[in-house]
Amino acid sequence: MLMLAACGTAAAQEDHPQLQERIARIENGLREPVAVAGQAARTMRLADRMRQWRVPGVSIAVINHGAIEWARGYGVTDAGGSQPVTPDTPFQVGSVSKPVAAVLALQLSAAGKVKLDEDVNQRLLTWKVPATARPVTLRALLSHTAGMPEFDLPGYGVDVPMPTLLQVLHGQKPAINPPVTPSGGNDYAYSSLGYAAMQQALADASGQPFDMLASTMTLAPLGMRDSAFAPSLPAAVAARAAAGHDLEGTVLPGRWRRHIELAADGLWSTAPDLARFAIAIQRAAAGTLPTWLPQAQARAMLTTVRDDYGLGVELDHAGREPAFHHSGSNIGYKALLFAYARTGQGAVILANGDGGWPLVEEIMRSIAIEYGWEDFHPIERPAVPAKTALFDSYVGQYRVSNTTLRVFRDGDRLLVAGPPLGPQPLEAVPAGDHGFFFREKDATLRFDPNGGQPVQTLTFVDGRPRPGKRLP
């Protein structure tokens, strides 16, 4: 059974009754990504959604008026255990490591140790970026415009050898990635291996290990005492850290995987610590934290280089208020940092389950609605009555890309199950005789009619159209 307990606070004013009421509304007001037009919005309890997505533990910190207004932990660090998640529980935060690593690069730039637009090979001593017609710069590495390989970094289990960073860069065993070789292009191509190259460049330029440098320059000045770039944790810290869990909610072997590519995805942190980091970015951009990061560097970080990505952060300029954010997705963990650049608002949500991304978004929608943000509101889609007699022709299993969707009936409801939809079957809401959408996921499904006979093909749209074919 999931133990749901709110533990501790990072803000002295959290005991205020009005804030308690606000937190309760958020905890009981989770929203799905899609709402049915003309119907009252469905709201859900955090405890129920943690069970739905099989996420044992969650940590939340909310920023308001330029400070952490409240922070709470929910659930447990390990499925089946009793140790509660608190605001001080460390999680792996995946690619939320990148903004923190980017700040370190900008701090070294401000100190004259590196230059954003010089050939990074001028600073690399222990390894060199293979030569291309266009030199690779630190700015290009930070903004994913260096043409570096696109390769997911799944980490290394506790029972297998872990490579050194140089073995990763050379693509040598036991590293599982290809050599870090740029293509020579300058289009946006998200590359965690590019951040591995940046990690080595900063260490070589400073003469200090990356983790120690980040701790001294970036983390410690903000009081981020529960944060560290590390593949493994000291025993005392590991004992209270959140374990990673698979889609079924089972603890990962060894509790987590190890990441030597620290700048890309090797940060352990807490929701309040990352909220402190987001506040520091807001203050630095306003010019009120120059001893940590000068305003010029902060503004460079929040300036788009290509495809709504700045230096280490994703940027959103579509609304009235510009925002910066980054998500993280190590195996067993999901994370999201979101903050407005000028209003002193934002939030950090950490989850210790592979099925946690929909949950993280549902929580963020509830926070956004409660605090009156312009982002994260559900999209509305009209539902159209369907001919339920056709449902039997849809029932079956379909091969879609490299996975399988299973379609089945529950009375007059059509349900769909499969990895793209998460650990639980989702109801397909009719949008016509052959078209459907989902409340729990921003995706659509359309069956190709077959004259009343069993449908043979369909199209599943989840960011991009994916055709499917009935399995025998």
TrEMBL record:
It comes from the Bacteria. Pfam families: Beta-lactamase (PF00144). Residues 47-356 form the Beta-lactamase-related domain. Residues 448-472 are annotated as: Disordered. Gene3D superfamilies: DD-peptidase/beta-lactamase superfamily. This is Beta-lactamase family protein. It comes from Rugamonas fusca.
